[in-house]
Amino acid sequence: MEQIWNVFRREVGAYFNSPVAYVVVVLFLVITGALFWLSYFQEVNLLSMRSFFAQAPLFLTFFAPAMTMGLIASEKRSGTLELMMTMPISDFQIVAGKFLAAVFLLAVVFGMTLMYPLTLSQLAGTFGTTLDWGATAAGYIGLMLLGSTYAAIGIMASSFTRDQVVAILLAFSIGFFLYLIDRLVGQPTGAAAKVVEYVSTASHFENIARGVLDIRDVVYYLSVIGFCLVAAQASISSRRW
Amino acid sequence: MATDSTSASISVEGLTKLYGPFQALNGIDFSVQPGEIVGFLGPNGAGKSTTMKILTCFMSATQGEASVAGYDVREDSEKVRARIGYLPENVPLYDEMLVYDYLEFIARVRGIEKSKRRDAIKRAALMAGLEAVISRSISELSKGYRQRVGLAQAIIHEPEVVILDEPTTGLDPNQIVEIRDLIKTIGEEKTVLFSTHIMQEVAAVCDRVIIINKGTIVADDTVDTLAARIASEKPGLLVTVPSGAMTTTQLARELARVSGVKVVHQEHGAAGEHTARVELSKNPEVVKKAIFGLAASGGLPLKRIGPFEPSLEEIFRTLTGGSTEEDIASSPGASEEE
Questions:
Q1: Domains delineated in chain B
Q2: ipTM of the complex as predicted
Q3: Is the minimum CB–CB distance between B77 and chain A shorter than 8 Å?
Q4: Contact A78/B86, CB-based, under 8 Å?
Q5: B101 touches A at CB < 8 Å
Q6: The whole model's pTM is what?
Q7: Domain definitions of chain A by residue range
């Protein structure tokens, strides 16, 4: 546990000592903020976060891999991973610490978007209504689960290569595919429909964003995260076999 | 060579490593006793880094046994890793960190208790001579200082065994001397295995040298013993004449006529001199007399004559079959180690 914390601390420090964190945070806020307020002004009377929760997942498929692309790939290239792997720390602790650092950065980004619901809630007061905070909280939980899943996919991709560009392309392709699969596959029926719906990251997110926090959706995200982190660990451990 | 694996700091038996079809290590055996400083010498691509990566548990061997500080690298990897300090080739460091923060991170990962952490960092930084740059960013450091940070990192937890992969590569002569002194200091308390392709380095720092070539150990002895061995394998005389008196071709021709002279090689002599190394088929004393006779008859303006003592390069070239770095680097498969 302490070793995971050590890696986490270092990675968070590295994020905020390099332009990566700032570029990701600013771009994500600019894009989602612009879209959010544009759609707000189109439907002035809609005091809900629905448009934000509809748009953010799409951008996460790109921004989460951007945060994670260098986590392992750049350490492979520079050789620092080799040094870490000769210290008394397990490969899983290295991977887990890096994953949690990416999750932390996502939490910071989402934390900054809290100004949208806060503003909406002020506006709601002037209209004499209230913002549905329950649905908003559910949406944020969904975003964290979805973002963490993409981060885990990104770390897995980063562990397969020493090239950050390859890592982000691979992670983005996997994430984008999983996000769009239920939209791309026409009108599947029967078992195929079930599979497509189950595999799609978006369909699980929509359930949660509607305010239905079903354990099956949570299990889906946690199992994808678990699978990706174990794959990342196996990938860096394979040198020892 | 008998290896006492229970007390040895490093013990390697029949270690073999294949990269696909390329055999990087060909069943090597050696051991290093506690407190020894051992130089691991060989041309690039000979298998030095591969051996070190196996000893530090970064990579597994295809076959064979290796133990460090009394623990098997395969079975007790975590125990081995807790007892070694390692500086990989090219000194990988986290560039965006400050020197102090980096050492603190390593101290944490190395499990040094909070109360002792500050002292450990201070001790390692002082030993490696990092006082002046302790609050600088690693990305701003010169190559020499980077190397020092890498060494500080390797000794911060006072490991039993320190493994350094080419710690002086790419440094200027002053820095090389400083790093060598540092290695000697580290070696006063710990077992040190370090690799290099520079023979002088081994002579300057080590108790013993292990020479490896193409995945096989070709020598494992003290530098002096090796020099004596080469001298006896390749008896010879060095003959020097003033360069004004005759050309090198004339010198070679004159010497070749002396009975007992097998081959004449040109050597790089001092300015104003020509020097030839003579390989002998007869007793050196007899040939020496014959050359004196030639000099006395005016056939040779002899300045100096003496036994050939192999230089460090000569020892290295002889043991590694004359393969220079360039030969090795261009041979197929050799780059797979990098």
A1: 10-223 (3.40.50.300), 235-309 (3.30.70.260)
A2: 0.89
A3: yes
A4: no
A5: yes
A6: 0.84
A7: 2-240
